[in-house]
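Entry 14. Structure prediction run on the chain below.
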Amino acid sequence: LEELVFMGYHDKLTGLYNRAFLDRELERLQETGVVPVSIIMGDVNGLKVINDTFGFHVGDQVLLKISQVLSNSCRADDLVARWGGDEFAVLLPGASQQVAEEICAQISSVLSSYKDTPVVPSISLGFAAKVDQQMSLQQVLTVAENRMLRRKLLENRSRHSAVLDALQETLFRRSSETEEHGRRIAALCHRMAHILDLPSSQLDKLWLLSLLHDIGKIGIRDSILQKPGPLTEEEWVEMRKHPEIGYRIAKSIYELLSIADYILCHHERWNGTGYPQGLQGEAIPLLARLLAVADAYDAMTQSRPYRAAMSHEAAVAEVTRCSGTQFDPSIVDAFLKVIR
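Output returned:
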């Protein structure tokens, strides 16, 4: 019976109190009329991106780390609870708004010190205090939540940029992709785009796509990414998931929304034999078709642990041979004009 009661009032993952228990305590404190009482609301940043990129087990580790920091930063009589999937709440009886603010600062300071971890835990916080009987604790909670949401909105753009930088750094560290590879592709794509008379808005997307088209590879096992020889068929099945993983990551990050569909489609083939959707011809987005040619040429002319680089002439001949099957013929024509 005791175990059932414990499970009814505690979060299974973190061991913290759950929302049901916090609601009960809010009612109790409201009835007793204790003042001051402060409430802190927190929302974990980027949890969906973390889950989509690294898996739910890593997302769970982030939630556990944040729950530990919250507990360690609060006073002995404070009540820390997991409010929802990525939300936490802290009830601080007898605490003024200044105390709540100091605790929030302590939480943020500790979390920001985790510089060397693959995924830096982060949470947006808001707080409010009941200082007299005119305000209910439910109103205090609403004020704290609104402040948390405003803080999250203000910090959102810079945080997404930081997440983007971290993802790019992880990609370059874990796979054979390099920033130089991306920049070479970007330069070649831009020259081809000018031949095709694409607008400047497309050129900006091309640059971003060139650098991050393979971002989904950070969701692939290291043993596959760093294998010094050809992949087995089973390993290729996993490797071919990276456009879909990349698409999910891009849909979760504001700066990458505009290239999400191109990331998904950059391994499609003109004749419909590509992946993941088997799109054919002009059903494949133009920028994805353009990138495919530049990416293939650059990959062929660079050495890999399991093969030597092709000569420029051999790579150009291979791209030409695949015109109309793997590649869009009009893109190949533009490629030939700028590469020779």
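Residues 2-155 form a domain with the Alpha-Beta Plaits fold (CATH 3.30.70.270).
Filed with the rest of this week's runs.
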